[in-house]
Amino acid sequence: MELSLIQKIIVFALPVIFAITLHEAAHGYAARKFGDRTAEAAGRITANPLKHIDPVGTILVPLAILLLSKLAGGGGILFGWAKPVPVNFGNLRNPKKDMFWVAAAGPGANLLMALFWTGMIKLSFTLPDPLRIPLALMGAAGVFINAVLMALNLLPLPPLDGGRIAVSLLPHRWAYKLARVEPYGLFILIALMFLGVLGIFMWPLILGLINLAALVFFIHPVELLALIQIVLN
Fold first, then answer.
1. Which of 102, 132, 140, 144 could serve as 127's disulfide partner, Cβ 3.0–4.6 Å?
2. 191 CB-near residues (< 8 Å, 6+ apart)
3. How many angstroms separate the CA atoms of 185 and 182, rounded?
4. Which of 226, 65, 49 is nearest to 143 (CA)?
5. How many CB atoms lie within 10 A of CB 26?
6. What is the pTM of this model?
7. What digits encode the pLDDT tens for the residues 8-48?
8. Residues with catalytic function
9. Cα distances (angstroms) measured from residue 9 to each of 49, 60, 95, 128
10. Is the dihedral of CA 81, 82, 86, 92 positive or negative?
11. pLDDT tens by residue, 110-127
12. d(Cα 102, Cα 105) in Å, to the nearest integer?
C-alpha cells in the first residue's frame, strides 16, 4: 500500500499540528504551575493551534519534508516546530530546579500523545474497513511524529528541552558552561543533521518509544512499525 502526497498530508496534518502545539502549551502550563505566568498572559496555555502555529516551522517545513521524502522514495525524519512559548525562568520559585519540570513538560506531552495515537490504532482494529484504515494510518503518523519530537527535544543541547533539563541537573559550574552554548545550539543541530549524525542519536530513542507504546496497548511492535512504514513511504 502506497499513499499519494495528498493522502500523506491528510494523514499527518492533525498529528503534526497537535504534536507541536500541545508540546508548547505543556511548557506554558508547567511554567504557570511553578510561578511564571508569562505564557498565560500571552494566551499560550491553550490547545488552540492558531495560538501556536509558526507558518514556517509548523506548516512549510513539514510539507517540504513530506514532498522531498516522497520524491526520494520514502524514509527520513519528519519534524517541525511551533512558536516558542515565552517563559521567564527568573519568575520560577526555584529557577534551576523548576527549569527541569518546565523543560520536561514538552517531551512529556509528546509521550502522552504517542500513547494516545497508539490507542487510536488499537481502536481502529475494532472498526469496519472504511474507518479502520484511515484511523490506523493517522494513528501511525501520530505515534511517529511524537516519537521524533520527543527524541529530538531530549537531545542535551540548548535551547532544546534536553539542554535545559541538563542545565537544571548539572552542578552550577557545568550548567553555566552548557548554557553558554545556547546561541549556537541551532547551528550545531543543523550541522549534525547535514553530517548524518543526528539520526544516530535519535533513532534508538524513537524506536524505543514506538516499542513501548506498542507494548502498552498489546500491539506487536512489528505491526506498529509496518503501519509507520506505510505512512513514511
1. 132
2. none
3. 5
4. 226
5. 22
6. 0.91
7. 889 999 998 899 899 999 999 999 999 999 999 999 999 89
8. 24
9. 17, 12, 40, 23
10. negative
11. 999 999 999 999 999 999
12. 5
